[in-house]
Amino acid sequence: MKNGTDSFLSLGHWPSAGSFGFNTDILATNLINLSVVLGLLIFFGKGVLSDLLDNRKQRILNSIRNSEELREGAIEQLEKARAHLRKVEIEADRFRVDGYSEIERKKRNLIDSTYKTLEELENYKNETIHFEQKKASTQVRQRVFQQALQKALTILKSCLNSELHLRTISANIAILEARKELRD
């Protein structure tokens, strides 16, 4: 670098003012060109760069403000959602408790109605058994009565002869006549 600076300052390398020529020292010409370009950029670009940076700064600040507003809105929505969630959880717990209570109540009602139905069936069974026993008892009595009557008729027929038969008829007629006289 020292050579480049020296070549820039020393007049020995510069051609005389009266003549025109090319400088073949690439490092010296590049440094001169770079320093001129940088000087011009700094001088003329300072305002433009400053405006660009100010605009960029404003956009960044606006983005930050918007982000903060969005963040605050999101926090509000989150708090609302949490409050709603708590409310829904409380409601769900209430429904769950009410549901369990309702299930228990229905279970008790079902058990009670089942016991009631079983009692009714038991009563119906007992009534049916009692009815069937009465019916069987009546049928047995009727058969016994019929058999006894048939046996008695058979005995009477075998024991009765015409004379006994006539005496029985005469006695019954006498009884009927006595009743008739009492009634008149």
Detailed description of the structure:
This protein has one domain. 89% of the residues lie in helices and 0% in strands. It contains 3 helices and no strands. Helix 1 packs across helix 2 (26-159). The termini are far apart. The model is unreliable at 1-16 (pLDDT under 50).
Number of strands: 0
Shape: rod-shaped
Low-confidence stretches: 1-16
Radius of gyration, in Å, reads 68 Å
Helix content: over 70%
The count of domains is 1
> What is the H-and-E element order?
HHH
Measure the end-to-end span: 177 Å
Largest sheet: none
Number of helices: 3
What is the mean predicted local confidence, pLDDT? 83
Share of residues in strands: under 5%
Classify the secondary structure makeup into a structural class: mainly alpha
Task: Give a short overview.
The protein has 184 residues and is mostly helical.
Structure keywords:
single chain; 184 residues; mainly alpha; 0% strand; disordered N terminus
